[in-house]
Amino acid sequence: MPITKGFRALVDTAMAQVTTYSVAEVLAKLQSPRVQLVDIRDIRELDAGTAVGAFHAPRGMLEFWVDPDSPYHKKLFADEHKEFILFCGLGWRSALAAKALQDMGMTNVAHMDGGWEGWVQAGGPTETLDQQKARRAAKA
Q: Considering its fold, how many domains does the chain have in total?
């Protein structure tokens, strides 16, 4: 069966319909308590680290974690005062994911173009998963 609409067309359509921030724009928003970065990469991609303060929500579970009627719902996503900025490796999966959440009714969702790769290239603050766990434990 031939593919009639490739991934690039899907990503381009999503990017035209969701809020897209550059890495520089996200870096400028980092200090706001209303901004929550969400790393949607696969757990195997996190060996290199993640953005400081990012919440990990694997792409395969995202819609389930967002939906309050799901048995997998995460309360973090119910905070309507936060803007959730999704990122992945390059910004393709996060565009598709932001579009899916927007289709579910979320209006406080955006994505970061360039993803993790752009974040690291721009010198965005990073942490390992162990550092993230220690930081969260210190807050508790």
A: 1
Asked if 66 and 77 touch (Cβ cutoff 8 Å), the reply is: yes
Whether 120 is in a domain gets the answer yes
d(CA 39, CA 94): 9
Does residue 81 fall inside a structural domain?
yes
Backbone CA torsion sign across 140, 56, 115, 95: negative
Q: Taking a C-beta distance cutoff of 8 angstroms, is the pair 18, 107 a contact?
A: no
Per residue of the chain (140 residues), give pLDDT as tens: 888 999 999 999 999 999 999 999 999 999 999 999 999 999 999 998 999 999 999 999 999 999 999 999 999 999 999 999 999 999 999 999 999 999 999 999 999 999 999 999 999 999 998 888 888 888 77
CATH value at residue 87: 3.40.250.10
pTM for the whole structure: 0.94
Q: Where are the alpha helices (DSSP H) in 18-79?
A: 23-29, 62-66
Q: Domain range holding 12?
A: 7-139
